[in-house]
Write a structure and sequence with these properties.
- The chain has 180 residues and is of the alpha+beta class.
- It is built from four helices and seven strands.
- It has a single domain, classed as Roll (Pnp Oxidase, Chain A), CATH 2.30.110.
- The longest helix is centred in the first third of the chain and has 15 residues.
Length: 180
């Protein structure tokens, strides 16, 4: 079991560079392209992320997934078994949240968007990792391999080292809306 974050580590996670909240000023929001580039870099460094769906009772459901890096249009692909709860939950309500966190740099990206279930053979072939061979009977060609195609509507980024800290009063992260 890991020890809880220290006060300084927690402040770093919140993007305050370990300074007391009252002394931190929110920098001007960086240009959109800079925020998106930072988000992609953090996502790549984190590798895994938490996928949050809405369960049948309205309770958010979270699990760790191994997504592909975002496409140039920020589409994120996630492979799964079609019999999982997440697939049933997305069928009911396609709204999802992804959370990427880098414990080494205390940065995070939250992706809000919608997921579409994708069984296209070409997409499945293009989104395959050899290390998954033991998880799927016929690799990416089988009925047990399904893709989630996530279209972001908003990115929220916190990276103190990149000048993208939380607002000192509201803790609101740097936000970029992604057009549909």
């Amino acid at each position: 079991m890991r020890a809880p974050l220290s006060g300084i580590a927690l402040l770093l996670v919140l993007g305050t560079q370990a300074q007391p909240f009252a002394q931190v000023t929110q920098p001007d929001t960086p240009p959109r392209a800079q925020v998106i580039a930072a988000a992609k870099d953090i996502m790549q460094g984190a590798r895994y992320c938490t996928l949050i769906t809405i369960g049948p009772d309205g309770q958010p459901q979270a699990r760790i997934v191994d997504p592909f890096l975002p496409d140039s249009d920020l589409t994120i692909w996630i492979a799964t078994n079609p019999l999982t709860r997440k697939v049933q939950e997305i069928r009911r309500d396609p709204r999802i949240t992804l959370l990427y966190f880098s414990p080494t740099t205390f940065e995070y990206v939250t992706v809000l968007g919608t997921a579409v279930l994708d069984t296209d053979a070409l997409h499945k072939a293009a989104h395959w990792k050899a290390e998954w061979a033991a998880l799927y009977k016929d690799q990416n060609r089988g009925e047990d391999y399904l893709l989630l195609r996530v279209k972001p509507s908003r990115l929220e980024v916190v990276s103190a080292r990149r000048g993208m800290g939380n607002d000192p009063k509201t803790w609101r992260p740097v936000i970029v809306d992604v057009p549909k």
